[in-house]
Amino acid sequence: MSKTSTTNTTAKPAASPETTALRRVVIDPVTRIEGHAKISILLDQDGQVSDAEFHVVEFRGFEKFCEGRPYSEMPGITPRICGICPVSHLLASAKAGDAIMSVNIPPAADKLRRLMNLGQFVQSHALSFFHLSAPDFLLGWDTAPAQRNVFGLIARNRELARAGIRLRQFGQEVIEILGDKKIHPAWAVPGGVRTPLTETGRDRIRSWLPEAFATTRTAFDLFKKTLETHKREVQIFGNFPSLFMGLVDAEGNWEHHGGKLRFTDASGNVIADQVDPQKYDEYISEAVQAGSYLKSPYYSPLGFPEGMYRVGPLARLNVAEHMGTPKADAELKKFKKMGRGAVTSSFLYHYARLIEILASLERIEGLLDDPDLLSEDLRADAGINSLRGVGVSEAPRGTLFHDYQVDRQGLLRKVNLIVATGQNNLAMNRTVAQIARHYVRGGGDIPEPVLNRIEHGIRCYDPCLSCSTHALGQMPLVVTLIGPDGQVLKQQVRGMD
Amino acid sequence: MISKLLVIGYGNTLRKDDGVGPLAASELETLHLPGVNTLVCPLLTPELAEPVSRSDEVIFIDASVEPARDVQLRRVAPADSSRVLAHAANPQILLALARDVFGRVPKAWCLTIPVEDLGLGESLSATARANLRSAVEMVVQMRAGRLDADEDAR
After folding, report:
1. Dihedral (Cα; B92, B94, B99, B103), 10-degree rounding
2. Distance set, CA A306 to CA A285, A286, A309, A396 (Å)
3. Which residues in chain A land under pLDDT 50?
4. Of B41, B47, B81, the CB nearest to A165
5. pLDDT of residue A7
């Protein structure tokens, strides 16, 4: 949507022992419509960075909007929260409906839902890697923004750029073949899915695989070279201990759509395992943070903020013992050697994303040989058998929760959505602070290369601001420097038209 | 030979008037205009660059809260270079991707529909409904050669 933006903010820092002397920061509510990513960097008396925050302004109105509607409508509604990860919401929503009906869906329906989720992983991770991240580490932090973008990448290597677009197209093709639409396919429903996969559709998906594997291989080669020249980034881009959470199967292997929740710590110890997703709220609470509209989920037994955990590719690979497919397993082994117990550097989200693309392609390949995929037994039918249903599915960015409470007629009384970006918010804050401490000095202008690094620190998490802000996928960046007396010293804006 | 026109209507259909772009494209699809293909999407994303590059002409339809009160049809050119910070692009970026990655860029226009209500919901305001009809008619006229689309139109 074309729009003019006027932003008028007065800043307040989040409360912490080190910043209690600072004036409080308030985020102007106008910005939530715009979907800005706002960063506040707090300086102490010596001009050193004392803290930093990445503010994702979440628009919670969506959950209220759904109250009173039939739960069966939610797979048609919730994908429209987000044009970037509609499939994730579709599948989590359908699962919540399954739980309300208390049904086990037919095996074929489960496999088809998984196939769609795998397509979603491929398309989302491909975009993140090739378009949003690769320009940074291929072209360099010090390259001017006019060149340090996907067009610079095209100029450097047009075939790589084309391959990246086509890899994403492949993922979208899987989604469209199954759901008949690339975006918002109203295909998964409580109890199963609407339509089967055809032989033609299956063959079309299969025909793409060689190219998809080849492009992924190229991306691995590229990133491994990047690791040799970006050792500093691995050290300081969000490298800190935290918990990690993700879905695993009964054997503790990588899961993307079923299974149970597992939490591990920074040493790789499992601290909670095989947690029934229906009981997620016995392990996850949400804290309200001063100066933000976002609630920050945390691991309840450790309290806030010690219970900070990360989700998404890095977390999923940390909690999983194996990927379950040979090529991805070989890469997982190399990946795990990059940490002691757990891999803690957020820069390595990029590596984890590539491993998940590879695992997704291998699993798609395996699924296509399953004759069940063409079955027409796709729906289970039942009434309201539970007044609460929780649907959990791994979105590309992290674990997604849809929690619905209904009345006896199936009308929604309460909806709670926990999205990945919210769960990573605390970690993103720490990442920004870590990078800022290394590079920001004094209260003057923040040089472009420093802004580039801070922005990349956020991009490691591939945040979905559409889900968090219900805006339209833009991420203009507003960086505010705040002095020890709370005065705004400087505000720099980029990416706003 | 009939030129290939691609109409891309984009916006969020759960944000009331923001859905006018998709609705306009959907309505044009029902008219079965010769040589016209339509795409409906919430965002402009890079994989659209390939179908854009294969078209002779492209119209991007979107809601607008700019001060202009009339539907506007404006020529749009590819960006010289631009920044993709998030997963969505704009028409200029998409055209540039079509040119730089796939080697071809069509003539293109932005058709912006003035709207007033972007709240949560699926209904359209009276303003949006009226302007949606005007926008659809504009495309029909343009396709019939009754609109000089090389000049900006409203």
Report:
1. -170
2. 12, 13, 9, 25
3. 1-35, 467-475, 497
4. B47
5. 26
Residue A247 sits at the chain B interface (C-beta within 8 Å): no
Complex ipTM value? 0.81
* B64 chain-A contacts, CB cut-off 8 A: 1-3
Say if the Cβ atoms of B50 and A165 lie within 8 Å: yes
pTM: 0.88
Q: What tokens appear for A479 in the block?
A: 């960086």
Task: Give alpha helix (H) positions in A184-338.
Answer: 199-229, 231-236, 313-319, 326-336
Mean pLDDT score, B93-116? 92
Which of B43, B47, B118 lies closest to A83 in CB terms?
B43
By C-alpha distance, which of A200, A210, A250, A206 is closest to A115? Answer: A206
Whether A1 sits inside 8 A of B65 (CB atoms) is yes
Query: Of 3.40.50.1450, 3.30.420.40, 3.20.20.70, 3.40.30.10, which CATH number belongs to B5-143?
Result: 3.40.50.1450
Q: How remote is the C-alpha of A237 from its chain's centroid?
A: 17
* Residue of B64, B69, B81, B99 to mutate when probing chain A, most A C-beta within 10 A: B81
Flag whether pLDDT at B127 surpasses 60: yes
**Paired residues of A43 in beta bridges:** A49
